[in-house]
Amino acid sequence: MHVRIGRLLIAAVGIVAAVVATGTAAPAAPAAAAVPAVPAARAAAGSLPRPAADHPELRGANARVRGEVRGLTGAAASALAGEAATRFLALTRGQISTTLAAQALHTAWGTAFDQPQAQGISATHSVLTNNGTTTRGGEYIYSPTSLSPGGACIEMTTAYTPSGPLLWAWDWCGGRSGVGKALTMNSAFRSAYTTTVNGLPAYSFQVSKTNASTNEWTAYLYNYQTHAFQTFYTSAGSYDLGDTWFGWNMFEIYSSIEPSTGVGYYCTDMAGQGFDASAIQVELNGAWQPATPSNSYSYGTPPPSGSSFQCPTLTFTMNSPYNHWSARIAG
What we know:
The chain is an alpha+beta fold. It has helices at residues 3-11, 40-45, 74-92, 98-101, 187-193, 265-269; strands spanning 65-68, 72-73, 105-114, 120-126, 140-147, 154-161, 164-171, 178-184, 195-197, 200-211, 216-223, 228-235, 246-255, 274-284, 287-290, 296-299, 314-320, 324-329.
């Protein structure tokens, strides 16, 4: 089982090292070239990538793949992740130190899946743009973070770090276990890849299995300027986490108590902010299905108290089981 989330399912509270990746490249300009061919596995299934069921512009003739999202990959992404990635890997290997484990709280809440036959996941994720877009006190907020069940190579994460909000594709295949691609969620990113959903700026993504024989998975982002998808990252190979049945879309924290307030630093810094994941879908037997009680469940039922997340003013809501959740900090 994936140690980072799996320990939560067993004990509800664990400790995790933070994973940080930064990128400075701006999103790609709208592509003028012809639409690239849809990956063969997707064409054979008779469907095009389309992440958000409640947004008609993401379906039908407009649901095409046009170009690639620019960002940092390979050694550049790994180098930018630095010590945070080293700590994260130590945790997944069960080598986290007692000292580090005593320094912070790691916990999560949201939608979980038990679908080893899944072929993909899609959702629309909110992005903070006002207060609290940077973290301090050794904290990292992963919200939302999403991994398809079925042995998916790619976990898509909105990460709030000391240097600001990032979007990364964490690569869980072929022994890589690291940041495969990362970019900064700056104004250029928000202009191209977000729209207003549930009152918040949000981006839409899909991660799909694109070649079953090699366990290849591809992540796509929807470009709201070109009204088409763009490829974000592709990975293939053996699944490093082992437990192909498990997947999630969650609010996740790595939080430390601020001595002067007695609550997590993020609880103060992100007051008045909200996190939202909507239109959560999973692909089963070649068809996209909203997350419902028949194919998913809530990790944490009823929703936990904010105090258990070091933030008494934090409230969780499962708005529509289990395809829309929100977490909001009063302020």
